[in-house]
Write a structure and sequence with these properties.
single chain; 629 residues; mainly alpha; Serine Threonine Protein Phosphatase 5, Tetratricopeptide repeat; 3 domains; three-stranded antiparallel β-sheet; 66% helix
């Protein structure tokens, strides 16, 4: 027996017990003086550490037991010895559990005291700083200070809150100064009505009021100039001078160039410039001698010249592709980009930007490569219009937006596009193709632009031909009325989702639309004339009415009262079953003309076609329910 405190440890045991005793004696001897480790002072770690220590001590105390008589194992004393050991282990475990519970109670008591002290400290701090909470929120988050909170801050003790009040005034003054620097009327008015104006210093507030007064006066002058736009071309020059002077005064007042009113003024300037330069054509009259050199007679020469220019452009494209290299890659990318245009402003802007970059690369390769690229762009635009406008009329305005944006950067695009469109549709010139002497019907149709079917022998039907010519007219009208392009400015290297619309120079414009219309109406009508006029007027009449406020109603009266009856007279004596396209076109044109004259007589502007309205950014398709298997 080995004495250990008030107890003794059994050494005379079976062969297993002495070895186990020697292994655990150091732990047993160290147990009474053991201190809990540092980690036990924390709540979560303490509980885990104490649990581990409890299990370790339980596993070691079973060798410590009160003294009991030594008996030989052969006499059957093994069971009795084990019983004594189990009793001693339970007793030691209970004693250890009691000590652990006492330690836990002491720790909980100290923790509750510390929490109570902390809560009291927080409550005192909250009571002391309750009056400056709105001020702190104003400084950190920019939330405006309400009037009661401002009065509460002002009544606070100066020694406690003066520095915070000064900081709030500095923040408000800085915001007021920034608002004054924007020179935007809406921002200035909002800043004057905000609580920041009450806290800002006198210098910042004075600058804000001065900016608001100057910018407001500039806006008012520009609004008056835009409200006095002329009703005809006679006063276009004077109105243009007035709008330009008002826009210059607004720029001198610091109004930014992307202000909506400035953009509107620029658009009006472009329209007034086109109106001033356009021929002063009044309602044309039909009759003997009315057909002049400006009629369709000269259109035949333009059509032939356009076909020759298109053939030359095709040869340049073929040469660029045959040479390979960078020129071939850029020419093919130009066609691919045009094929990706959709009825969405962001797509129009992004594809136009990419096309400008491609044409810039081709320009670096030489004039021949640039001509090939512009020719490829024009060819693809016309091809897309012929294929898609009939099913999706809005694509004509999307393609026109691309042409306007790219043509502004590279004017050669306009020449190539007009030649390509005129070569594909003789009526763009305008030109009515005469029947050659001794030519058959099929030969005459081929001269007018009828396409051969896939069999290589027969020609397309009249319905398909009329629909394709109507698509060309829709695209021609969309090109002539285009005057502004969408932009998505870049912010910190990324595209902003906000769209801005800026005016762009259209070398054709509304003046070319008026000239084309006058030339067509000064020529004797043909059966197809109504099928050409309806899509053209439907696409750009709103621009013609806005530019030629007095002349355009006269032209519509002439069209409805004198010209369309002559078109109907061409159909007399012909089987109605063969005139379905002509009758439908005349009916649509008469109804549209009557409605347009009613709107103009009531002082209402002609509405833009519904197809011209595009979304800014199209949301991606919802494919969550799609079956991808």
């Amino acid at each position: 027996m080995l004495p250990f405190g008030d107890e003794e440890v059994l050494l005379a045991a079976p062969p297993l017990l002495p070895a186990l005793g020697r292994a655990v004696l150091p732990f047993v001897a160290a147990w009474p003086a053991a201190e809990p480790p540092q980690c036990m002072r924390d709540s979560a770690q303490a509980r885990a550490g104490r649990a581990q220590l409890r299990e370790a001590r339980r596993s070691t105390v079973h060798v410590s037991a009160p003294a009991f008589p030594a008996r030989s194992w052969s006499e059957g004393g093994a069971g009795e010895a084990h019983q004594h050991v189990d009793v001693a282990a339970r007793s030691a475990t209970q004693r250890f559990d009691a000590e652990i519970a006492a330690e836990d109670a002491v720790r909980r008591k100290h923790r509750e005291k510390r929490l109570a002290a902390a809560a009291a400290a927080v409550a005192s701090v909250v009571d002391a700083n309750a009056s400056v909470a709105p001020l702190q929120s104003h400084i950190t988050t920019g939330v405006p200070i309400s009037q009661p909170a401002s009065e509460q801050i002002a009544e606070a003790a100066p020694d406690q809150h003066q520095h915070q009040l000064e900081r709030a005034r500095a923040v408000s003054s800085e915001r007021v100064r920034r608002a004054a620097e924007t020179r935007r009327l809406s921002v200035l008015e909002a800043a004057l009505a905000s609580p920041d104006a009450k806290l800002a210093d006198a210098e910042s507030l004075g600058a804000l009021r001065t900016a608001a007064r100057d910018v407001g006066a500039a806006h008012e002058a520009l609004e008056k100039a835009l409200a006095r736009l002329p009703a005809g071309a006679g006063g276009a020059s004077a109105a243009l001078d007035s709008v330009q002077a008002a826009a210059a005064a607004a720029a001198a007042a610091g109004v930014p160039s992307d202000d909506p009113l400035i953009l509107r003024a620029k658009t009006c300037e472009v329209a007034l410039q086109q109106q001033a330069a356009a021929p002063s054509v009044v309602a044309p009259a039909l009759g003997p001698g009315a057909r002049s050199a400006a009629g369709v007679g000269s259109g035949a020469a333009e059509w032939e010249a356009a076909k020759a220019a298109t053939a030359s452009s095709d040869a340049l494209q073929a040469r660029a592709i045959a040479t390979g290299g960078a020129a071939m890659a850029s020419v093919r990318r130009v066609g691919a980009l045009v094929g990706q245009v959709a009825c969405e402003h962001y797509t129009v802007w992004s594809k136009a930007t990419a096309l400008v970059d491609e044409l810039g690369r081709l320009r670096a390769l030489g004039e021949e490569a640039l001509h090939a690229g512009c020719g490829a762009l024009a060819a693809k635009l016309v091809q897309q219009g012929a294929m898609m406008v009939e099913k999706s009329p809005g694509i004509a305005y999307a393609l026109a937006g691309v042409a306007l944006a790219v043509g502004e950067a590279e004017p050669l695009v306009w020449a190539c596009l007009r030649d390509r469109l005129c070569a594909a549709c003789c009526y763009v010139a305008p030109c009515y193709v005469k029947r050659p002497e001794g030519a058959s019907n099929d030969e005459w149709k081929r001269a007018m632009g009828y396409k051969t079917r896939a069999d290589g022998r027969t020609l397309e039907k009249k319905e398909a031909y009329y629909n394709r010519m109507g698509a060309y007219m829709s695209m021609w009208a969309a090109l002539l009325q285009a005057s502004a392009v969408p932009t998505f400015p870049r912010t910190n290297g990324a595209n902003d989702s906000t769209m801005l619309v800026r005016p762009a120079n259209n070398p054709l414009g509304v003046g070319a639309a008026w000239s084309w219309l006058a030339r067509l109406l000064n020529a004797p009508p043909q059966r197809i004339t109504a099928a050409l006029l309806y899509p053209f007027l439907h696409g750009c009449a709103h621009s013609l009415a806005a530019t030629y406020r007095r002349q355009f109603p006269k032209l519509l009266h002439f069209l409805n009262g004198a010209y369309l009856p002559k078109v109907r007279a061409l159909l007399d004596g012909v089987d109605p079953g063969l005139l379905a396209e002509e009758i439908a076109a005349i009916t649509l044109l008469e109804a549209w003309t009557v409605n347009a004259l009613k709107d103009l007589a009531a002082g209402r502007p002609l509405a833009e076609p519904a197809a011209s309205h595009m979304v800014e950014v199209k949301a991606p398709d919802d494919t969550r329910d799609a079956d991808w298997d």
